[in-house]
Every structure is written in structure tokens, then in C-alpha cells.
Amino acid sequence: MDQFLQHLLNATMLGGTYALLGIGLTLIFGIMRVVNFTHGELYTFGAYMVFFFTMTLSANFFLALVFAMVLGIALGAAIEFVLLRRLRGASIDTTMLVMIGAWIAMQNTEQLAWTGVAKSVNHPFPIDPLVIGPVSVSWIRIFVFCVAIMLIVGTHLLIHRTRLGKAMRSTFQDRETAALMGVNINAIHTATFALGSGLAAAAGALLGPVFVLVPGMGDMAALKSFAIVILGGMGNFMGAALGGFLLALVEELGAGYISSGYRDGMGFLIIIVVLIFRPTGLFARAERIG
Amino acid sequence: MNRWATGLWVGFLFSIPLWMTDQYYLHILIVAGIFIIAAMSLNLLLGYTGQLSLGHVAFFGIGGYTSALVSLGFDLELTDSYTFVFPAQPVWIAFLAGIVVAGFFGWLIGKISFKVRGAYFVIVTISFAEVVRLVALNWIDLTEGPMALNNIPPFTLGVPGLWELTFWRKIPNYYLVLVTCILSYVVIARLVGSRLGRAMIALRENEPLAASVGVDVTRSLVLAAVVSAAIAGAAGGLYTHYIRIIDPDVFLFIYTVTMVIMVVTGGKGTLAGPIVGGLIFGILPEALREVASPEMQWVIYGVLMILIVYFLPDGIVPAVSSWWKERFDAPPKTGEERA
User: Considering only CA atoms, which of B169, B313, B177 is closest in space to residue B236?
Assistant: First the structure.
């Protein structure tokens, strides 16, 4: 039972970042109909930016997190502006091919920039874990979890309480009508992609100090994001948030009780099973945002 | 291309080992040929049925692993007291087994994943390949996991005891790959020209319309997936018995991407497309090896793929053939027409 509680706690801590990744991807898919293969690279980018600011420039850790996220937003906006804007209206397969090309180019640029040697990021939190009765959790993970939850709530408020969010939701519902009502579709697409990318970069920046950094780390993150998005239903915000926690739980239990070698395989099994039995996702009445 | 040009091409390809004495170039051509076979099989799904299957490397790897295991023999501890022992088989049987098993997985995955389309289909196929990779990595009793399967026997030709040729050298392997390549080409060309092929193209163009005139959607797509997977499995078998070692890295997503780049660059939905693309991307890495690191090469490929989608969306082969038609086959302007 203690072991189970520990797994549950670990899953919750990890689930926050997974939810961030999933929400970023699901927003982009829902609003732009783009299967974003660069999502994992933005995650890697965020992690390496934290490394760059803290270890190379010896900046403050918390400041580095903010910088990483801001740069992630900027990079996302640039990708949308350069690559995707001219593909508006192209088939989903065409954009997918472009995104695959961008993903490969980005991943290998990261490999060139940072080499394949694994890197680690120092953080200012105490090494000794917090022990609560039978379970324990490290301080950095608590911090990561809290920031992730704050970002999720912030994104939710952005979508539901601001003008920009309203414009995003209306674009999601009906692009043409939204455009007729004076919504600047180009700006909304750029903002959406920048926001989704920023969330991915934030997830990477937060998990960077927890794990080690390698240039290929984004692949698993991207594939897990896909799993989360499918679990929650494409374009479903709450679905992605819940999906993130669910995937973390399944992985944690799978690694704990079946075999740790198949930890990363759980997400793919989920994808396959969900798409066979419930292709619209577990939480979906219909594809929607909000 | 007419019959004579085709004959000339095939003759040229058969003559290469006669004058190309550098074994290294021959090796490059063999590997390029194996990837061309894989790319042709992917083209059947990607180009003709219009389904972007991004798990194609799974069939390649399954074919390779099956062929390796059957030719090496293996034992599985099913219960504590009973161990299933599979004796080593001749390489040809192993090769056929690889094709059959890959084809079976093509059927299975087709049955499962053709329930969904578009983005969902892509993600299911990626997931499938990743699951297979993880199984190959973790099922150490069978696959040796990251330690890889070594000493895989090469192909042999002839009757045991009387006369045998073991394919240790490059030249017989080159001919083997060339013949398989031609066979795969013929199979795909016949299939595409058949009733089923027309059904596949109709599905690509307009699925509801095709279904409304009586095309059995799932059956056509699953059949295409079976043939495609079986040919990819054959490519995997050739690869395994030529390189003679196989490890779970064969399932890496990057190999699927290589095949996709080959098909898209050459021209998806054309018979010659994967061959042209395969030759370019089979030879380019070796040509660039001196000037660019592997990472730099991948950056170039990624950018190239984006540029091709923007500026040459149909690929090289359709672009060249339309240019050719414009240049040489344009109807001569006669006096009556002008008048």
C-alpha cells in the first residue's frame, strides 16, 4: 500500500508537466489543425535554454525558467510565421511533412549546438526529499508541480477570460465566421502556436533539472504528448489536462508493477487501445476547446 | 518510359558490378537498393492509397528480425519445465518467413488502424512502430535486446553437398538486391494497374465517392497494407542477411523518415518516384560525408524536405515528366490551328 501511495504521488508530480505538454499540443491541433511534430523540440529547447542561462551564463534559476519560456514563445511564433502561414488551407498531410522536416532539422541543430553528451542542470532546492509518513518527494518536484499547475490555470484563464482567448475559441468553432466578425486569423494562429510552444518549452525547462538533458529527449516528449492528446480527445483542453495525469499514472504503475523497460511503451499502448475503442478520446463528447 | 528504355536501364544496372570494381561503391548501391525496396513499399500506402503511414520501419524490422531468428534458430522458455526450441532453418526459408510475418503484421495493423484517418492514423502507426521497438529492446530472451543478434548467416544459393555459393561478397548480394528490387517493382506495378490499384487511387482521391460506387474501403486498404508490409519485410530480410547483425535501433523513427523523404522527393504515387528518391538519398549521405557531419546532413535533409513540399509538392519525377512533355511532346502548331 505504501508503495502504491508513492506511485500515486510520483504520478501526480509528473502528471503536471505531462498536462502542460498535452495542452500545448491540443491547442495547436484544435485551432490550427496542425499535427505539431516540433512540439518535442520546443520541449528540448526549453530544457537547454535553462541549462544555457544557469550553467553557462550563471543566471538565477528562476529567471532562467522565465527566459526559457519567453524564448520558447518567440521560437513558436517564428515557426508559425515562417513555415506554417503559407500552408493555410493545405492538406493535413502536407503540413505534417513540413513539420517532420522542421523537427529533424531542429533536433539535429540542437545536437550540433549541445553535442550528444548528457548535461545536467543545478537547482537551488535542497537534495533531501520531503518525507510525509510513508512517502517521500523531492522539493524540486514539488516546485515543478506547482509551477505546472499555475501555468495550466493561467492558460485556462487566458482562454476563457480574455479577448484573445475568446478570439481563439471562436476561431476553433468556425474559422470563416470568426474572420467575418473581425478576428485576425493570422494573428490568432501565431498566438496559438506561440502559446502551445511556450507551454512545451516550459515543460522542458521544468523537467530539465529533474532529468538529464540529451538532444533526443524531445522524441519521447512529443510521442507522449500525442498520447495525452489522443487520450483526452484532440482539441480538448480539460481532456489534455486529465490525460496528462492519467498517462503519468499508467506509466508509473506500469513501470512499478509490470516492467520498467516498458514504461515508455504504456503511452503507445494507450494510443492504440483508445483509438480502437474510443477514437474521440476518453473525455470527449465532441472535439472542442474549453 | 517505353520498353526499350526500360530494357536499357535494367541492362545498365546488371552491368554495374562488371565495371565498378570499388567494393565500397557497390556497398553503397546495395544499401541504397534495400532502402529503395522499402521506399517502394511505403509508396504503395503513402502514394497510392494516400495514407501517411509513419510506422513503416516496423515492417522492415519485423521482416529482418524474423528472418534473422529463423535462420539462427531460437529457444523460448515457455514454462519452467518446457522450452520451445526452434531449430535453425536455411536462409531462404527464413527470408520467406520474414516476408510472411511482416505481411501478417501488415494485415493486423491495417485492420486496427484503418478505422481512423488523417492525424489519428499517423499517430497509431508511429505508436505501433515504437511498441515493436520497445518489445525488441526488452524481450531479451528472444531478441537479445540491445546486445543485438550477431553472426546472422548470409544467403546461399545451390544444393547442399553438390555446389553452393554463399553470399559473402558484394557482387552476389548486389544481384540479389537488384533482382528483389525488380520483382517488387513488377509486383507493385501490376497491383497498381489492377482493379485493386484503381480502387486504391479512387480512395485516395475521394473516399466517400469511391465507397458509394462500391469500393470495399477497408478491404482495399488492408490488402495494400499487407502487400506493402510484405515487401518492406523482404527489404528487412535482405538488410539483415547482408549486414549480418540486427539490433532494436533498426526500428528508429528516423528510418521511417528516410523512407518518407525518399518517396516524397522522388514523387509519391509514381512508380519511378521512390527509385529516384532512393538513389538520391542513398548516395547523397556518402557524397556529403567528407564535407558535413551526420547531424549537418540531417539538418540539410529536413530543410530539403520542407523546400520540396513548398516548391515541388509532387516530387521530382512528375515535375521532370511534365517538363519533358512540354519540351518534346508538345503538339506541333499547324497552319489550320493558327488560322
Answer: B177
- B residues 29-88 near A, CB within 8 Å? 50, 52
Nearest CB to A265; choose among B126, B134, B306:
B134
What CA–CA distances, in Å, run from A98 to A112, B44, B284?
21, 21, 21
Query: Based on the structure, what is the number of domains in chain B?
Result: 1
Instruction: Identify all chain B residues contacting A105, using CB atoms and an 8 Å cutoff.
Output: 298-299, 301-303, 306
B2: in domain: no
Query: For B306, which of A101, A264, A265 is closest by C-beta distance?
Result: A101
A86 interaction partners in chain B (CB closer than 8 Å): 310
Dig out the grid coordinates for A260 from the structure: 520498467
Show the cell assigned to B75: 529457444
CB neighbour burial string for B171-208, b if at least 16 within 10 angstroms, e if fewer:
ebbbbbbbebbeebbebbeebbeeebbebbbbbbeebe
pTM of the model: 0.86
What's the ipTM? Answer: 0.85
Chain A residues lying within 8 Å of B50, measured CB to CB: 93
For A268, the closest of B130, B295, B301 (CB atoms) is B130
CB neighbours of residue A26 within 10 Å: 30
Residue type, B202: A
B chain contacts of residue A267, beta-carbon cutoff 8 Å:
127
In the DSSP assignment, the letter for residue A119 is: B
* Domain-wise residue ranges, chain A: 2-114+131-277
E strands, A94-134, in order: 130-132
User: Quick count: other Cβ atoms within 10 Å of Cβ B330?
Assistant: 8
Q: How far apart are the first and last CA of chain B?
A: 34
Q: Distance (Å) from the C-alpha of residue B220 to the closest C-alpha of chain A?
A: 19
* C-alpha span between B32 and B38 (Å, rounded): 10
For chain B, 339 residues long, give each residue's pLDDT as a single digit of tens.
577 888 888 888 888 888 877 888 889 899 999 999 999 999 999 889 888 888 899 999 999 999 999 988 888 777 777 878 888 888 888 999 999 999 999 999 888 888 888 778 888 888 888 889 888 888 887 888 888 888 888 887 776 666 777 777 888 888 889 999 999 999 999 999 998 889 889 888 888 898 888 888 888 899 999 999 999 999 999 999 998 888 888 888 888 888 998 999 898 888 988 999 999 888 888 888 888 888 888 898 889 889 988 988 888 888 888 888 888 766 555 555 444
Residue from B108, B113, B120 whose CB has the most chain A CBs within 10 Å, to mutate: B120
Q: Residue B74 is inside which H or E element, if any?
A: strand B74-77
| Whole-Å CA distances, B63 to B19, B57, B58, B70 | 32, 10, 8, 11
**B50 conformational bin, left if phi > 0, alpha if psi -120 to 50, beta if neither:** left
Residue from the list A86, A109, A264 with its beta carbon closest to the beta carbon of B134: A264
Cβ–Cβ gap A223/B299 under 8 Å: no
Chain A environment of B251 (Cβ under 8 Å): none
Fold assignment, A2-114+131-277 = ABC transporter involved in vitamin B12 uptake, BtuC (1.10.3470)
| A234's grid cell | 484532440
| Closest in A94, A107, A108 to B309, CB measured | A94
